[in-house]
Amino acid sequence: MQAKKRYLILLSAGACLVLLFYLGGVPLPAASRSRHDRSRNGYRPDQPWPHFSDPLHPFLPWDQADTEEYNLHISPTQKRDVNTSVYKGKRCRMDSCFDFSQCQKNGFKVYVYPQQKGEKISESYQNILSTIEGSRFYTSDPGQACLFVLSLDTLDRDQLSPQYVHNLKTKVQNLPLWNDGRNHLIFNLYSGTWPDYTEDLGFDIGQAMLAKASISTENFRPRFDVSIPLFSKDHPRTGGDRGYLKYNSIPPFRKYVLVFKGKRYLTGIGSDTRNALYHVHNAEDVVLLTTCKHGKDWQKHKDARCDKDNAEYDKYDYKEMLHNSTFCLVPRGRRLGSFRFLEALQAACVPVMLSNGWELPFSEIIDWNTAAVIGDERLLLQIPTTVRSIHQDKILSLRQQTQFLWEAYFSSVEKIVLTTLEIIQDRVLEHGSRSSLMWNSHPGGLFALPQYSGYLGDFPFYYATLGIKPYSKFTAVIHAVSPLVSQSQPILKLLAAVAKSQYCAQIIVLWNCDKPLPAKHRWPATSVPVIVIEGENKVMSSRFLPYETIVTDAVLSLDEDTVLSTTEVHVCTNCQQFSHRFKHLRYSFLKKKIKATTRSFKFPYFLCFTGSGFCDSQIYFHCSKRTADLLLY
């Protein structure tokens, strides 16, 4: 019995030793590593190196994933995906993939590569480049640039498209300033091709930023990329038509509640939602029309519903539907974005988004909950009930916001491009970036420059929102270009007349004359301060500069020879108090005298111009002596 116990103990000990040798827990004399190798890797005899049965791969930074050592541990498929993916730098952010040094030194300047001979370029991309070259950000010196834009057309990266640029990978890599895409911005509208329509651009963008349409939230790099809208080749370069909201009727009734008219894909990506629209179509107030009649061989693949859908599709005019519906469905197509998005905005038809995973255009700055209904493709059957439950006041607010956003940021290629650049500038110069209120309320981020002031109260546009009432008095700025030689000169009479106004807080004489400043005693004594300052560059536009001595919201800009009485100043500075007596004022000069005419309609806010320029709330306007008209504000 004792012998059996000893044999069991010996057998157990032997099994334990074999197991230790197998797991590597005990170093063997014939180990492959030399003493030199172990010491080089931090091995010390008094501190055994821990060994695991399933060793972890060494950590490498994301941007070193294509090194030879890393490639030993991944499959050929994984290696190909990493090297060809448009989002190789998926972890890129401004602090890791952008060099701020040039921007801090020279400001936010944008350089466009010179166009290479023989390279084809689409009209849409030419419009983008022309907008940048005509903007205040453009520089022709790459040494001064903070941001670089390719002259190679990257808008359409669908290999089946005639606009597709071949060999772009080689062409981009050969650019002398490419630097792995650092501080570069790439514009793109279409990526991928049939059948998957991936977001691959077909070349390595490195550390470049993307201004991309139809970008998914999965691939979108927050505060690095910019999501832009999908726009057609006919989208105007500048200007653009205004929105179609003509009347703010309450309740805001339209003929249809919800409409859509577009292609139906029988199979493949983007087909599920559009194939299911017939379930909620009622041909009355919910009109959702699709057609299979697209593509060369559509008849070979048509289903049982195609003929009926096509016949009903042809009965309705798309524009008539668009302009007579309260809500417009914007389902995804083959890609996440759709032309229907901008069409709905312009038509004051509240977009109902059905494109799961789409990063909406300019989502970094725009609060889309104030202008659109964000739906879920999986809850299509609930959409009609949802939109019918929205209160009329909310509908009116949504429609008004669609018009503001359309006209502020989307009505032209110019506005889309400038908005993109302003967003990036706000990131680079973060201390002077715009607030959400600036972007989402009139007049919009393109017109309220944060370089002017970081305090919203300095902008008259936000008085109502902030509950601020402007100061009731004005500052008169008189532009002087003639020497003061006589006490009977018009400028002195003008100064005395303006100073007598109870609404005048101070008078500033901007001396742009070649002669020296007159002595202080040459100016008449007045009841308000008279400040004489010398113009820096002696040009007429210097009257519009925001001088620190101006302490009021309203500024009356005057020529030195303007003939104006105190009564006329009263009328022009306090028009609202006269609105019960003058329904509409229109001043016209007739033999240097002012004639007032009336009309049968009334405006709550207006300014009167009389041979001068009146600035309300720090926005300068000027009117010459020969033209005086009413400004509706």
TrEMBL record:
- List the residue ranges forming a coiled coil, or say none: none
Which Gene Ontology molecular-function terms are recorded? glycosyltransferase activity
Q: In which pathway does it act?
A: Protein modification; protein glycosylation
Q: For the Exostosin GT47 domain, which residue ranges apply?
A: 105-390
Keywords assigned by UniProt, alphabetized: Disulfide bond, Endoplasmic reticulum, Glycoprotein, Glycosyltransferase, Membrane, Signal-anchor, Transferase, Transmembrane, Transmembrane helix
One Gene Ontology cellular component annotation held by this UniProt entry: endoplasmic reticulum membrane
Subcellular location field: Endoplasmic reticulum membrane
| Membrane topology of this protein | Single-pass type II membrane protein
Q: Which InterPro entries match?
A: Exostosin, Exostosin_GT47, GT64_dom, Nucleotide-diphossugar_trans
Residues covered by the Glycosyl transferase domain: 474-571
Keyword Lipoprotein on this protein? no
Q: Which Pfam families match?
A: Exostosin_GT47, Glyco_transf_64
Where do the record's region annotations for Disordered lie?
31-50
Q: Which GO terms describe its biological process?
A: heparan sulfate proteoglycan biosynthetic process
Q: Its family?
A: Belongs to the glycosyltransferase 47 family.
Protein name per Swiss-Prot or TrEMBL: Exostosin glycosyltransferase 1
Task: List the source organism.
Answer: Cynoglossus semilaevis
Q: What is the lineage of its organism?
A: Eukaryota, Metazoa, Chordata, Craniata, Vertebrata
